[in-house]
Records
---
Amino acid sequence: MSSCNGNSTMKCRVADSICVRSIDGKSTFELQDVIECDSIPSELPEIATPEVASAYSHLHRISSYLPPLDPSIKVELLIGRDIPEIHHVQEQITGDKGEPFAQRLALGWVVIGEVCLGKVHAPNKISVRKTHVLNDGRCTTFPLCENNIEISDLKDDIFIRTTNDNKVGLSVEDRQFLSLMDTDFRKDDTGHWSAPLPFKQPKPPIPNNRSQAWKRAQILDTSLRKNQTKREHFMTFMEKVLNSGAAEIAPKVISRECWYLPLFGVYHHKKPDQIRGVFDSSAVYGDVSLNSLLMSGPDLTNNLVGILMRFRKNAIAITGDIEQMFYQFRVSNHHRDYLRFFWYQDNDFSKPLIEYRMTSHVFGNTPSPAVASYGLRQAVATSDEDVRAFVCNDFYVDDGLTSFTNKEQAIDLVKKTQNDLKT
């Protein structure tokens, strides 16, 4: 198929012996080799109606030749220039400069040009079409762009500064992420807040990378055998993870998709006696990584400068942090098999490596910060106003900073916040 975008090869069905007839029945044309396609883009407001013709004096006489618009009738056929006789102009009516004009073709009258009937044919939203080319071999889709542009007269407000001038707007993907959280973020049967993994849509088939994760687990095992201190630190870290319920022994996988996360450890330069286990969600297998399949979500982190400025405002200061914040938010049960990993049975280094899976959002997944920040706000949605203000405005990720004029207020806020975040 040739178009202004170049040549392309496509598979389709071809129909023949199809005829089209004008509304008055005077003209009939036989169409040869009609090609079937998946969808035909159509904009019903672009179709001329009797009201359009009646609105212009030079087109008034053809209004009776234009059928009323029936929104229930779909556009099912596009006739191209390969049948030129259908496009022969038999009569033309023109008006003044800038006004629409009409042409009579063999199949009837068409109106060409810009028309505006009290916004009936001129919507105040701009629709943008964009093309998605899928890498998994499925058909190209043409979804309607979800961004709306509000049009206003700029002559009065073009130089006015607002508080939103430097704020980055939400992307389409960010809106999809928030919509998913608004719908599926809830408390599970155990009383924990739970959220699904925010997969991009459409999600392609995911290969099984068990062999990759097993190889990485063997490498980590060798490293831990050579370094007793690192081994002890890692065992202590994983003991907290397992005892908190953030991980569980994985069930057998029969037919479901699954993904394995290689595990490695990192040290903070200020905490040489502690190691953090990181799940390598960026590990690539078969041109796919878990992070490449997930929406990262919007940046919900508060402005650090603002937090520090408010922290210095009063004499009585309080600070606090949420231990293992990501692990406080569970993963929906149907997504836990995408977080499988290898670790020692019963957290005993002398026992074999077996399969576990995370029940909580992990350090290493790109959406985990957004999920945790969203969840933290959701956890205090029904709390007192001072608790909501503290958590929503004075937390930087998992660290809270604020100040008061007297210690009674500070102690009261700390107790209420601790109590609300426990439930």
---
Amino acid sequence: MDVTIVSSRRLAESWHLKISKYDNLATNAMIVSVCTDNNSESCAVKHTPVVLSDRGELYQKSGLELRKIGFTDRDISDICLLTIIGSLKCYDVYMRTT
């Protein structure tokens, strides 16, 4: 999983950036090569961008991809909640140090 936290206005833009950067022939060939070297199945490895806003909003395509690899609605809900908690902690630290 390739997780990124962005503002709500940049969810789609960030998704497309991650896809264009990592879902290409060179990266996919490297995944196959590394899996072959480690006697693993390359079909078991997939680049999955997970794009969330700092307010816990999950980009729809990220949610679909997470469900495809076996995440439950509860798992996804936990990810969103933890994103909110992490953002609040970062904000708290920022405010205390300024």
---
Amino acid sequence: MVMTLALTATELSTSTLGDLSADLLLDMYEAMLRARRLDERCWLLHRQGKIAFHISGMGHEAAQIGIVFALRRGDDHLLPYYRDLAMVLAFGMTPLDVMLGVFGKQGDPSSGGRQMPEHYSLRAKNIYSVSSPVATQVPQAAGVALAEK
């Protein structure tokens, strides 16, 4: 059971969440928290001058995790953009994978440290490379869907 609260923290309604088990909700919450903590760490590293680039996705975690948990990991394909940290983590990238990219290290699975940081990809998990202009993944996703047809 979940309680929906208003901004003033007064109870609005109480409802069940259908097929979402307590374990699944906990997994989703942990995925959101993992993404937020890693995003905060990257933000701090950028402010300290230890990394050159960071685009935060803070505040997007719930929507991204909801999307990924509706997908079939291993079968479906993900075409993220640079703020989709929560999505790529939940879809199979590890925090180490992300940090190798942020620091531009050779072990970065996205590009071996050659791609702009936070332009995620991981072929083994069906995570496609990111293009910098926003929304370019839409026609790319259509092409992937057509190829899968």
